Amino acid sequence: MDDAALLAQQIRGVELAANQHILALDMAAIEAETSPDLIHFTTSGERIGRADFLHMMANPDRREIEAGPMDAIVIAPEAVFLSYTLGEHTLSGSERFARYEQVSILWMNRNDLWQSAFIHATPRPSPQVETLSNTRENSKVPLTWVVDTGQVEHFDETILAARKEETIALEKEIVDCFCRHDIQRAAALTHDDCLLIEPDGSRQGKAYWLALVGDKRRTLQEPAFGPFETVTVSPQVILVAYTLENQGAYDGAALRSAKALSTLWANSDGRWQAIFMQATIRQ
Question: What is the band of 159 on the pLDDT scale with cuts at 50, 70, 90?
Answer without folding.
Answer: confident
